[in-house]
Amino acid sequence: MIKTQKGFTLVELAIALVIIGLLLAGILKGRELITSAQLNMTASQTKSLTAALITFHDMQRGMPGDLTAPTTRLTNCANQCAVAGNGDGRIGNAAEVALARSLSPAPESLVAWAQMSTMNLISGTLPEVTALEFGNSDPAAAIGGGYVISYLGTPVFPLPYITATQPRDGHYLALVSRADGIQVTTTTMTPPVAERLDRKIDDGKPNTGGMVAIGIALAGSQQCATSTAASGLYASTVSNENCGAFIRMRD
Fold it and tell me: Which residue, 155, 7, 2, is CA-closest to 93?
């Protein structure tokens, strides 16, 4: 008896391909919905953290982390919250967050979160910090990475920003992937995602406005923006996580 080997018919193959296509479309759509939700939450977080900073200043007549006698002004202030600042009206400076952030001595950029948390103005940090990591020492960001807060200004504004013109002096949130220092290697978003966040909270451009991109403007897989000029755009075709952000809070 001659045995015949049966295979899939064209109809069966077509049905299988349709099912695979539907599954892939569902996965891609699901990822897009997740990214959109993360972006909305991240934009909301930046507004909430900015509001917390302004509220703290209005209530205490000073910046969090910068108070010279925090235990006499804040209730239940212990651990990092109790570390005194220098009272210069600014939360730390670029030098202390650029490359050498540490737990001891605790910089003002770290103490600021502890003091705002003590006043129940923010969540997402621990009362007693055990490590420099997001969700512990500093708030985590919904899009990935987290936020470091500091005054950034002349002449020591850290250089991972792309724009050829130094951003305006002021207090900033640095949205980066590591809490131990702001560097170009601490980027946390792809250029298309960074552009979408920029459009939600600013002007959609990497080198102008209240959100300035962290990254580089070179061609290739490490690119975040197309140029250092004000006319530069996010590198929309690059899929690597090459971008971070400085998000301005206030003077």
Answer: 155
Instruction: Say if residues 177 and 199 touch (Cβ distance below 8 Å).
Output: no
* Rounded Cα gap, residues 101 and 105, in angstroms: 9
Helix (H, G, I), strand (E, B) or coil at 10: helix
Q: Are 114 and 52 spatial neighbours (Cβ–Cβ below 8 Å)?
A: no
CB neighbours of 208 closer than 8 A, spacing ≥ 6?
Answer: 163, 230
Picking from 174, 169, 185, the residue whose alpha carbon sits closest to that of residue 251 is 169
Say how far residue 61 (Cα) sits from the centre of its chain. 27
- Phi, psi at residue 145, to the nearest 5°? 70, -145
Alpha carbons 187 and 178: distance in angstroms, whole number: 8
| H or E segment to which residue 172 belongs | strand 170-176
Q: Which two tokens stand for residue 42?
A: 């991240």
3-state secondary structure (DSSP) of residue 138: strand
Over the stretch 146-190, which tens digit does the pLDDT of each residue have?
Answer: 999 999 988 777 778 899 888 999 999 999 999 988 887 889 999
Amino acid (one-letter) located at 94: A
Q: Residue 111 in 3-state DSSP?
A: helix
Cross-sheet strand order for the sheet of 211-214: 146-152, 170-176, 244-250, 211-214
CA distance 114 to 34: 30
- pTM: predicted TM-score of the whole model, two decimal places: 0.86
